[in-house]
Amino acid sequence: MDGSGRACTKRRCRRAGMSIEDDIVFSLSENNFTTYMNQIDDTDVDFIFGLVAEAGKGPLLSYEESGVEKPMVGDLVASQSPQYLADINTENSNVISRTFTTWGSQLSDAAQEFVDMYESEYDSRPTKPTWAAFGSYVATQMYARARSEGGDSLDDTVTAMEEETFELNQTYSVYGPDEEAPDGNSYPHDLKYGPDFFQPTWSQWRDGEQVTVYPDKFANAEFELQ
Questions:
Q1: Please, are residues 210 and 110 in contact by the beta-carbon 8 Å criterion?
Q2: Which of 79, 114, 133, 210 is most buried (CB neighbours < 10 A)?
């Protein structure tokens, strides 16, 4: 995450009443995370908020092996893969990752159709689509529909996408240029979040199964420190 993204995350955390005790940034070329884990272990915090995508599974494996008894929460892409348990050689994890869905939960027919297509196309890890794959699929489908319904010009396509709603496991829709979000701000073309639209699930691996711990309407378990 770049500097502006980190600054935005910090503001939102403080607005939610959380204090930030440290800010750790590592290079994508980094392959030794022991120092970072020791730094985390020595810091008096309730949890770690992490954003780990392009860096792959290395930082997460280091966390799992370190014995740090503080849950790691955030966008932790490698942990979404069904192969993650083989990576860490255990059936339990204190990683809580933002996901599209939990593999033990019931998928809608449309979402299951996409999963089936993905599995038939790819035989390497991740063997099931992750957060990014679902988002890319939805965005592509919304664009294709808007392009076919909105006419030939780019402006017509944009207008059609602003009015588009797409159902997968949840409802996908974007804000229009003059539309106000519930917090009073404007987020043109950003995804609408909330109970009536899209809500990410937060998932934990436990006893070899991926369970949803939040939000309540999707949860099939509560978080447990392993």
A1: no
A2: 79
CATH topology for 3-100+200-214 is: Rossmann fold (3.40.50)
Distance (Å, whole) CA 119 – CA 111 = 12
Give the separation between CA 163 and CA 175, rounded to whole angstroms. 9
Distance of CA 46 to the CA centre of its chain: 21
List of E strands, 106-170: 165-167
Which pLDDT band, with edges at 50, 70 and 90, does 73 fall under?
very high
Which pLDDT score is estimated for 125?
Answer: 83
Tokens found for residue 53: 């995508």
- Alpha-carbon distance 62 to 68, whole Å? 10
Q: List the chain domain ranges.
A: 3-100+200-214, 109-173
